[in-house]
Design brief:
two-stranded antiparallel sheet; alpha+beta; single chain
């Protein structure tokens, strides 16, 4: 008796569909990516991850934090809003985000233990 290759094929195509799904994060962030004012619109967590991994101009803590948040959101471990905010803060510190799009800083108050 030989195994039927059809079920494996169906699962492979399902995997491809899952990887093609993008996580939209609401209002796009527009990065200014060149001195002449060229822009790049970031609309999904996947685009943000690509930029953070492959095209980011500086390697700093803000970038690392944003990448962690974006990847966590892609795995449903944090909110897409938190990932978007971390990405926007990293873009601001890297000089890629105009002041008009800069996120409002969040104040975190620690409660005594």
């Amino acid at each position: 008796m030989t195994a039927d290759p059809q079920p494996l094929h169906r699962h492979a195509s399902l995997r491809k569909r899952i990887h093609l799904m993008e996580i939209n994060w609401g209002k796009p962030l527009v990065l200014v990516v060149s001195p002449d004012g060229a822009t790049q619109k970031i609309t999904t967590a996947e685009q943000a991850r690509h930029w953070l991994r492959k095209r980011w101009p500086v390697a700093d803590r803000s970038r690392d934090r944003a990448l962690n948040h974006v990847e966590a959101a892609m795995e449903c471990m944090t909110s897409v809003g938190a990932a978007r905010q971390a990405f926007a803060l990293a873009a601001r510190t890297a000089g890629l985000l105009p002041e008009s799009q800069a996120p409002m800083p969040r104040v975190v108050v620690a409660v005594g233990t």
